[in-house]
Amino acid sequence: MKRVNVAYSLITDQSKSKVLAVKNVGRSSWSLPGGAVEPNESLDQAAVREAKEETGLDVKVYGIVAINECQFDKLQEHALFITFRAEIIGGIEEIWRPDEISEIAWLDIEQADELMPYHKNGFRSLIYGNEITYFNEGIK
């Protein structure tokens, strides 16, 4: 099985009552902004790049709030999903890649939990819970 690392950004509004989500064209499903880590790219770089490509927004990422794992037998892929806490620092919300993303929306936490049931204790636990320190030590 091929290993695939995927980095996501958990972006909330100021009140922490809404989560920014994107609707993926191919699967017609909702997810946080994110995608596969490219060769020679760090996890945090991928999260920042994917947020920009999918939403038009510039973000700064902090610690990791969730790590999920899944094996996709049909694709012969073993995926590791890393979700960073993120904050908007610039940009304009817009779809840059209409072939990949059909919609951007600010979802209430309950709606986010319903449309993206990937986190065992829901988004509230990610938003208000602890994060794991992430430190990119760079290339040595």
TrEMBL record:
Keyword flag Magnesium: yes
Q: Which cofactor does it need?
A: Mg(2+)
Instruction: Show where the Nudix hydrolase domain sits.
Output: 1-129
Could you tell me which PROSITE patterns the record lists for this protein? NUDIX, NUDIX_BOX
As one GO molecular function, the record gives:
hydrolase activity
Provide the alphabetized UniProt keywords.
Hydrolase, Magnesium
Question: What PANTHER family does this protein's entry cite?
Answer: GDP-MANNOSE MANNOSYL HYDROLASE
Family membership noted in the UniProt record: Belongs to the Nudix hydrolase family.
State what protein this is by name.
Answer: NUDIX hydrolase
Question: What is the native source organism of this protein?
Answer: Paenibacillus urinalis
